[in-house]
Amino acid sequence: MNHFINILKYAKPYKSYAIGHIISNVFFALFGTLSFVALKPMLDVIFKKDSVDPCSGEAIAQVVPVEPVYTGLMEIDNYTKDLLAYNMHQFTGGDDSKALIFVVGLIVVMFLLKNIFGYLANYFLVFLRNGVIRDIRNKVYKKTIELPLSYLSEQRKGDILSRVTSDVLDLQYSFLSVLELIVREPLTIIFTITIMLYISPQLTLFIFVFIPIMGFIISKIGKSLKRKSDRVQKEQGVFLSTLEETLTGLRIIKGFNAEDKFNERFQESTTRFYHFSNKLLNRQNLASPSSEFLGICMIAVILWYGGNLVLGGDTTLEGSTFLVYMGLSYNILTPAKAISRALYNIKRGGAAAERIQEIIDTPNPLKDKADAIEKTSFDSEIEFKNVSFKYKDEYVLKDFSLTIPKGKMIAFVGQSGSGKSTIANLITRFYDVNKGEILIDGIDIRELTTSSLRNKLGIVTQDAILFNDSIKNNLKLGNDNINATEDDVIEALKVANAWEFVKDLKGGIDFNIGDSGVNLSGGQKQRLSIARAVLKNPPIMILDEATSALDTESERVVQAALENMMKNRTSIAIAHRLSTIQNADEIVVLKKGEIVEQGQHKDLIAKNGTYKKLVEMQSLE
Questions:
Q1: Where is the chain membrane-spanning (predicted)?
Q2: Is the pLDDT of residue 58 over 90?
Q3: In this structure, are 288 and 410 located in the same domain?
């Protein structure tokens, strides 16, 4: 129930629709009840018999109704009956046929008003429910992209996709469908029971004995729904993850003849999903028949007990009144079934709400401080001061210290796992250091707003990450690039040595590169990544093995583009191919998270140490 209340908080911006929905439901419930009450005058007209004097046997003349006078709320029932009788007599002049037309017309009006307000209630609910779903989905997505990479690396992508899509959709048909019932069904029951109590308190109180029994049986059936629903949603995340991995790695799957293996894994997951869903839905399907059967049992008891009262000559319960009472009793069944379904839905939706809330409530350790500094310039240097960092158990960087002056190119080299890429992850604040600090112009980057820090950074990674859009929109990705002109885009492409192939593409900079740039070669994609960084024009450039995935010819072209880009900028280059960083102002050699050598290329070669061994190993490849 707590999750249900949390979800309802998202309805606050749509309170005008909620108020309209509630008011419409109040009138829906009212006219729905009155439509049954209006049956009594019709039954009285149909089954009407002239009153006869029991002594003389002569017919008693009918009393002509007079217009009643309202005397207070306590007499509202008599006033209403007398007013209806007076208006009916005025309309019919005592003619039974006209009286029947009047009563039938009254019933039609009651049902018309009921359905008008039912439509209005659903009309307002559409905006309320869809608005809440949109806001929840947006909130989950926003929180997902705000969370650090460390959180996302521990989650299955398919599970996150499942939460943003199917779990949110599940809320729409579980929790939010209950919004329709919160006012309508309880009020229908309250109005109906009120009229039933007025007609026959004795019979109505007898019915109340069965209501707790019905509630107990329904709650027993629905007890395990939340657990079963949670199992279904988790399994959906598993097969969505398998699907995502299949689409991403299809080339490798085919190359290693692993189609059968992945197909088996996918089918095992969908089979589990099939069994879990069957158990959940079959349990859920018990709601309607069980509540209806219990309701019919209640009707049967009313027929037996109430019939005995009528046959026994109870003067307070006429035949027509008893028929109306039976109609009202049946009128309780529909909202009662709806409420029982709502209780099932709340239990089923609880698992989806819990999974969604888990993402929303996840703390973000990289969130900006309340008084974070908005730094607008880079003036002097970057300093790593006694930095230690670990992803899990072992430290990847150990007591690392280094100063990078403005305008210099610093290259980091070393074997895999030596901590090179970690430096890029830390300066961009994808992760926070465990010990020490990273300073820009003497200010700890944790004191800066994340946006102002990353505005000063341009990133070119080993994997050219591009999006299914035009070349122009891929380059204009960052906020600072949105207003860039077409001339600015073309100039950035020229600096990156990319214009030479872009100008020959159909549409030029408006050419759609396809999913992950599938319509381009590896070298072309990498040059577009460089052009994107060039267009941003940041003072600090980070190159994370930007050429390691390229062939020799593509590397030469991309390396020329990188050199163009790095002119007059502070550059941090993480290199696998040492030939690309020989002109760096300083080369830092890392081993197991520590600096073992540093200096320029020729000086390090002269030392005849680790760097020279790395160069010689690559020259033999």
A1: 18-39, 99-121, 189-218
A2: no
A3: no
Domain span at residue 164 reads 15-48+75-360
3 state SS of 70: coil
For residues 92 and 98, the answer to whether their CB atoms sit within 8 Å is yes
User: pLDDT class for 441, splitting at 50, 70, 90?
Assistant: very high
CATH code assigned at 516? 3.40.50.300
Other CB atoms within 10 A of residue 424 CB: 20
Model confidence pLDDT, tens digit, residues 494-532: 888 888 899 998 989 999 988 778 888 888 888 888 888
Distance CA 122, CA 176 (A): 12
Distance (Å, whole) CA 369 – CA 372: 5
In a domain, 487, yes or no: yes
Dist. CA 166–CA 277, nearest whole Å: 14
What is d(CA 280, CA 349) in angstroms, rounded to the nearest whole number?
12
Quick one: pLDDT at residue 474?
A: 87
How many residues does the structure list for the chain?
Answer: 621
Q: Do 344 and 434 belong together in one domain? A: no
Q: What's the gap between Cα 110 and its chain centre?
A: 40
The dihedral over CA atoms of 542, 546, 548, 551, expressed in degrees to the nearest 10, equals: -160
How confident is the model at residue 246, as a pLDDT? Answer: 77
Whether 460 and 602 share a structural domain: yes
Structure tokens at 88: 């009916």
Per-residue buried b or exposed e for 524-536, using 16+ beta carbons within 10 Å of the residue's own CB: bbbbbbbbbbbbb
432 backbone dihedrals φ, ψ, rounded to 5° = -105, 150
Let me know: does 168 contact 356? Beta carbons within 8 Å. yes
Q: Domain for residue 167, yes or no?
A: yes
CATH number of the domain to which 198 belongs: 1.20.1560.10
**Is 9 part of any domain?**
no
> What whole-number distance in Å separates Cα of residue 186 and Cα of residue 573?
67
Mean pLDDT of the chain: 79
Condensed to tens digits (0 to 9), the pLDDT of residues 139-198 reads 888 888 888 887 777 777 777 887 888 788 778 777 666 776 777 888 888 888 888 887
Look up the pTM and report it: 0.70
Cα–Cα distance measured from residue 121 to residue 504, given in angstroms and rounded to the nearest whole number: 58
User: What number of helices (H) and strands (E) belong to the chain?
Assistant: 25, 10
Q: For the chain, what is the domain count?
A: 2
What is the model's pLDDT at position 212?
66
Q: Which of 176, 174, 165, 170 is nearest to 125 (CA)?
A: 176
Give start and end residues of each alpha helix (H) in 286-318: 287-311
Q: In what helix (H) or strand (E) does residue 365 lie, and over which residues does it extend?
A: none
Of 328, 360, 392, the residue at which a domain comes to its end is 360
Q: Which residue has the tokens 């730094």?
A: 375
Q: Kindly report the CA angle at 431 between 469 and 163, in degrees rounded to 5?
A: 55
